[in-house]
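Hey team,

Filing this mostly as a record. A colleague (T.K.) asked me to run one chain through the structure pipeline before their review meeting, and I want the input and output archived in the tracker in case anyone asks later how it was produced. No errors, nothing strange. Just documentation.

Input sequence:
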Amino acid sequence: FSVTVNGHADHSGATPMYQRQDALVASAGIITDINHAACTEAVYGTVGTIGKLNVIPNSMNVIPGQVKFSVDIRGIDTDSIQRVVQRLTNSVEKAEKDFGVKIIVQPISAESPVKLDDSICQFIENICQKHDINYMTMLSGAGHDSMNMASLYPTAMIFTPSVAGISHHPDEFTEFSDIAIAADILAETLGVLANQ
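Output structure:
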């Protein structure tokens, strides 16, 4: 979702607290609610992220008049995702009443969770066992091409470990030896599938 919170910009020193329509304070409550809702739903694999925030006019001595932020809710359980979305809706309604702001919530996209092919996953697991390669089966909260491919063809994914589990960060790093192992697993998996 894209969320736009419209308040009223005013001087930070001259505007009493009871007269403010602070778009950033209203946004902070919504953001905190989304985080709490996602934490509650974490048992179902659901996550919630606010990864982008634009504060206008973004000045130290001006009450923020507008805030735009993104909301990314992902998971594998549709009902769980919807509960977090409902919490967003409820939080927006509360913020409008409590802070006198107007809020626009625009859906950007809605992807349904995709189940990958069990038989291919089993082939990959068997190959790892055959070669005594440490592995784990896991759910991916990331959106990959496989989301679209799975609607047309049996699909699975092979992940390589990032050092310390770091991803989407300058410190992300995967050992070349792990990349080579994944490439070998992929090649052997393709061979198994081609010979079926």
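Quick notes for T.K.: The longest strand covers residues 2-6. The radius of gyration is 23 Å.
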